[in-house]
Amino acid sequence: MRPGARPDVGPPPRFITSEPRLGFGAWAVGGRSWGATGDAAERESAIRRALERGITFFDTAPTYGDGESERLLGRALRAHRERVAIATKVGPHDDPRASLEGSLRRLASAYVDLIQLHEALGRWEWSLEGLLKLQEEGKALAIGLCNATHLQIARATELAPLASYQGPYNLFDRDVEQRELPLCRERGLAFLAYRPLASGLLAGTYGKPPEFPAGDHRRNIYWFRGQEFERRRRVVERLRPLAERLELPLPALALAWVLAQPGVGIVLAGARNASQVDENLSGARRLTPATLAEIDAIVADVFRPARATDAAMRQATTWGERERFIVERLDGRTAYEAIAAAWTDRGDKPMIAAQVKVFVDQLRDQGLVEAEG
What we know:
Blueprint: E1 21-25, H1 40-52, E2 57-59, H2 68-77, E3 85-90, H3 96-107, E4 114-117, H4 124-136, E5 143-146, H5 150-159, E6 162-168, H6 180-187, E7 190-194, H7 226-245, H8 250-259, E8 264-270, H9 274-281, H10 289-302, E9 307-308, H11 310-316, H12 321-328, H13 336-344, H14 353-365, E10 369-370
Helix pairs in contact: 1-2, 1-9, 7-10, 13-14
């Protein structure tokens, strides 16, 4: 039986580090939900290339390609198991034991370094207790949580020896800066950043809203259409000269920005072939404070908070509580992430900045907010 509770999430000393590092996010290699499936051998080559280039942390889930991501990792990493850390997940409605044992079979491994609850939904506390039992049996070396509020993270640390929290983070989507990331720093949790390239948008290949095929999860992401896409496209175009000046591919610049943020432990970058791995790794370098400030200034200039008009304030008195809460805080200064976090503090149904942005765009269409700069 392997050791139970541990404060780290991988085999020392290769995982423990005082510097943030790049990990391999294995959703895309699962072959589904990301457009054309592509050749399995090519996708497996991405994993092998990551290993060759020194990446030692691989994050997957049973739902990534209906288990195909785990099977690929099992084939590619089996001979190197003791020098890598593998993290997988358990769905919020799944039986923890059955789910993890299925993952272990696909991964061809007796254990995982990190088992994570994929979402804190429903009976999530019961699920977390199930993960603790599996850790005590040595089938997982550490326990993590994904996609939760700061209130749930704090509660989770009371129920289990939580080692990590995984949430979305990129230079556009910064909700975690309000509560989750500071809490991870305070509680000593490793923060794993996923979606660092905004689901491929920060690769800089979309000059207009893309038409994704049926089955591609990006069809349902709000930033690939409408006013939000246009704002993000403007930022991407303004980042290009900076990336060129630094001799970095645009996605590498975006990854380097996340790697530079205080409290980030691992940045999970996906890749579907070996060349994408190489491109990602070119961003695993330190950016100067001046460069980070320049990036932040570009984003802030495009994403200026809106101000509600007097008409909006009057009409909001008859709207629902969430809508009134947002409108009352549209003062042209308060970030949408801060508005969402303040609502979530109440312990009701959580809110994220994306919901605020969509609502503000609806108000803008009705002339109820002043235009952003």
